[in-house]
Please model this.
Amino acid sequence: MIALTLLMTFSAVSANAQSKDRRKSFKSWDNYEITTEKVGVDGTKFVKVWGFGRTVDAATMAAKENAVHACIFRGLPGSATAMSTPPICPNPDTLASHEDYFQTFFAAGGPYLAYVSMTTDGVPSGTDRRKVKGGYKVGIYVQVMYDNLKRKLEADGIARKLSSGF
Amino acid sequence: MMRNTLLSVLSLVLVCWSASAQEKIKEVVTSNYNRNSVSIVNIQRGDSYDSNTQRAVSGFSLGDKYDINNIRTKSLRMPKTRTEGVSQTEVDEVVANTAFAREILASIFNRDSNGMMDDKTVRYRGNYDAKDQDVINARAARVGTDALGDLGHGLVSGSYIVLTDFYKIERNTDSKGNVYWTTNAQAYAYKIGMDRDALDSFYEQCWIYDDDDQAAREAKNRAFRNLDIPMIPVARATSAGTGSSVEEAAESCMGNLITGLENRIPAWEVAVSIIGKRPLRAKIGTKEGLKNGDRYRAYSYTEDRNGNLKSVKRGFLRATEISSNTGMSIGETEPSKFYQISGIANIDEGWTIKQSNDAGIGVALGPKFLGLGNSVGIGLDLDYLMNVSNVGSMSYFLLSGSIDLGKSDYLPLFVGLGFGYGLHLTRMFEIMPYAMIGGEHMGYSNSDKSNDRFLRESALVLEPGVRAAVNVAYPLQVFAKAYFDVLTLQGPLYKMYNEQVGHKSGLGIQFGLKWTF
Model:
């Protein structure tokens, strides 16, 4: 009987820890899924990206942020129909060294919104809209104005121009 | 000993619950619906009914919901008497010996006698099936909307054949000497066993190009003739029908057979997302064969602690206003409207709704008190849903029957027809004023053989009333009915019997349960 009680207690603690880990992983900016859907029209990237938030709207905004974040820092993975895209800022220290700039850039309603458009028809729906503990996880289709974003970061001295190496 | 048994039982329950949970995870309902294509083939038995049943099958229209693959084989010969239906094994054998998959491919790719094919049908179907999201995606991509036709290649795997079989065909005569026919029917559905790899292999081995030389053409034609693509059995449905001719009786079975198959083939059930509330709206319509009153079930999605996706049932809704979407999508499809009829939670934007066919027939049974006999009886009501409006008002055709148990010597039996108009104050509660006209028949005389005996033993009854029904666990409802029976135009024999029975106009009530099928 004692063994059974211990086993159940251990299971409950383990499940709780797993649940906390999972919630943390949702909130982490390094943990989002993004896939390249197709080759976008000139100067754009067409991706499907996921976000997490307390409401569907918050999760949708988070997904838009994630899409721009991926273009700047992570790069976009390839797919059956599109090549992978390297990040605009491949240097891993860029975020830390320009923290103030990116705080402003990614602030609520910040400049990043000028470089991303949601192309999901209506609201995130079906299996792209999941209720999870603490909120919603949504997947949306977005078009990132990649070339414009790159030019903006180059103009602001955040990203190095291709010509600067010569 | 007791404790060990208890622990064993507990462990077993946990294992079963876990297994059941795993099973549920696998059954995720999604909104990925694509059009399917169907060919109907009639099974002929080599008797005189072959031509009648063949005409019924050939004349049947599947409607806008399905594309039709015009294959060469329209009928299959299976010599066997019609005393029983052909079995699954027998049909499997015949299907395996017929080149249905090749015929389907030849139809879809317009293959001519030289083996030349084109993708016109595939591209047309791809464009026709494209949803608004596909159009928007295509516009955001460099390939553009011209690529929408490519979606049609994915639809090849949604090709089916349906084999119909009619048996126990019988000639009957009613009491007035009119002849009518009855038949039993069954349908077997088979799906083409062709995935994307098999389709790619087909293109590679069998597609003849203009610049192919004669040897290459022959090799590709040979490859086509040698294609070995299975037809996989997926469902069986049964029905029965009546008509003034064999053809009419067979025709009357066809709709039920297709509905029966729809209920058993998940890929045939339309699924789509809700795009707006007040009223609930979804981008389906006539193209998907949607009709007023059609029932759908709503699902939302969650993830369990391991990240496994689960669909959660959220109640039912019925189509109210149907949009005409029988054209190519341009990204702005007009949605149809729906009304939620059950479920605790309000159906929300983004949730998936999936076709969940029902007959729209409610059966209500319960004891009746007072009324004509001022006594206790049993009442059975049938209601058929005729129309649903955006605000949830529903029109019903009513058929009611009841028997007075207090005067069983004279067997007073009431049968009435009527019309009801249900108002939904909330989705859980319906109040329905109705009016009914019917007759009450009383007594039985063996010696009186006159033609008008039935009328002379009957009286006309008018019944205005109101019925209230509450969802308990949809489709189960509890109902209460209050009505006023007006007894009039009594036949002479009825009047005589009624002196003993004592039926008269009066207020009645009924309680009971209602189930919607």
